[in-house]
Design goal:
The structure is a single chain. By secondary structure, the protein is mainly beta. About 5% of the residues lie in helices and about 50% in strands. The protein is globular. The N and C termini lie far apart (about 35 Å).
């Protein structure tokens, strides 16, 4: 079992408010979006053991939902964060 602290740090962790994932689906590509839907939430991306994991996380670090993709099928991973203000909140 992975500790929560290690899970939060992740390998190559990226924090944003919206992440688009383009995946090779054989004869075509598919695009998925993970969006931080409520205020105070963020999207974190981690690559571990050949799996790309994109999670919506609350302020206290609880994972709300997670999307997992095989790393060798991911063609693009695009983070689109909201601009941050000095107090750390979005606009």
């Amino acid at each position: 079992m992975i500790s929560k602290d290690r899970l939060r740090r992740g390998i190559g962790t990226v924090k944003g408010d919206r992440v688009e994932i383009v995946v090779d689906a054989g004869d075509t590509t598919r695009t998925y979006e993970v969006v931080a839907e409520r205020a105070g939430r963020r999207v974190e991306t981690a690559v571990r053991r050949g799996v790309v994991e994109v999670s919506e996380v609350t302020r206290n670090g609880s994972v709300v939902r997670t999307a997992r993709f095989m790393a060798n099928r991911v063609l693009a991973l695009v983070e689109q964060p909201l601009p941050r203000t000095a107090d750390g909140d979005g606009e």
